[in-house]
């Protein structure tokens, strides 16, 4: 696909064409996108929505659906198939791939697709679908964690260049970034933070002994500079990774994802030891005051010792009492807090040194934060080591969802591989709308057999009203479309002719005198083109001129017979048409009413059999379900049959 061709596609001008090529990285990459149906790469381009990307991709690959589906009802049936498959899709990846599934004629590609889907069906059939459906729901790529700014911590660097480097990494979103200052209050400012991360290039800053300082080389991995970058990523995607891990387990595949939760839980369960230093020290103050009072009351002071007290000096006897009591309290405080310090001023009653208490509290906080930071680095290092594998596993499961959707569709609808030949032959076929019902009811649903071949490539289909003629035509359309999409079909076995086009016309059209010209404009080009096609016409006889309609339809039949195409025409004019053309007539006939007055119909057409429409059975059903007044009317009508 050259750039000049790309810009000629509807909805793509020069500007968007160049933007697509530039964003993808050149025309070679564009060709890869087309060959791999990589819709996601188009959607990632700014300004291209999912709908727009699908339109562009369809045009890039030649609009195969538009080439094959040539009538409104055929397009509707195709879209209904897509909607049925989409029910089993859980990701945008698989939805996009499903939306690009289209009927084609390349048998090799079709066979490859069918192989893929049949293998998927086999795999899905062995899985716990109830559990998988819960786990697969709304799968997505891992999210990027939003940074949470923490003003209690800061990063210290040596130069403006270092600031630029760390801002490029996004670290400024987490902490303030400071540069060294000559201010005499700078170190005091640093001590006001719970933690300071000194991310150094040369390490020339002399900051003395600061318990809240952590030094990290600027060239260290990101998880050492800021473990939150890794930890927050895994935290926000914890549920996703846990679900993918369980999916991998169900699929019987190895996974690194099972290691994530234990790492995060160990970190979450790590508790910074809460120390109520005020309570410890206040308890010791009460003890000291009591001990001093009791011990000093029993001390006998001599005259010179009393003079020492008058001169604000403690006598040796009292000094010894203070030393003994305070030494014991210091040991108690160390035992309970883990900190070796003396928080008291020697007076009676004893006083607490508030400045020393604040210093120690900050030291405890910094030490705890330091220990927790080390724990976070260890956890971040472990998670960083598996991050690439974790993302790869999520991508694998997201891509598996395409296989899962197609496999679930094929398995739950009980679809089977079609074979390709020069004819149509359906054995035990079933309309898609009945497939799931068949699985969930004890009521027997009749499957149908039907065939067209090269010598009998067109047939008239006759028979009972509500007998299944429309359903048969739609079943044939569904099977033809599914097969050429490269999907299995709702039949026990099926032979399919690969064709260029399919036309399916429902009962909306009529052949009254005013519609003749419209009919000729629509239907004559179908039979005069060289393409091989399947034409399905459902009751075209809301007419006022029977003789003219018969002559036109019989001419249509003759032209189909002489072509490589196939056709089925549902009609109540079989007797009249047989006068003008030698054509196979098949019939679906009602044989009676059941106990609930429903038609009993053999829905498999009898070949070479002109079936009656059996209107008397319909009237009889109406008779049995009507009021007494209406029964008189229907009874008189029935007498005439």
Automatic annotation (TrEMBL):
Report domain Helix-hairpin-helix DNA-binding motif class positions: 4-23, 40-59
Kindly state which keywords UniProt assigns to this record, in alphabetical order: ATP-binding, DNA-binding, Endonuclease, Hydrolase, Nuclease, Nucleotide-binding
Mitochondrion is among the record's keywords: no
Pfam families for the chain:
MutS_V
Listed SUPFAM superfamilies? P-loop containing nucleoside triphosphate hydrolases, RuvA domain 2-like
Q: HAMAP family this protein is in?
A: MutS2_archaea (MF_00971)
Q: What does this protein do?
A: Has ATPase and non-specific DNA-binding activities.
- What is the recorded name of this protein? DNA-binding protein MutS2
Give the organism the record lists. Methanobrevibacter olleyae
- Designated gene of the protein: mutS2
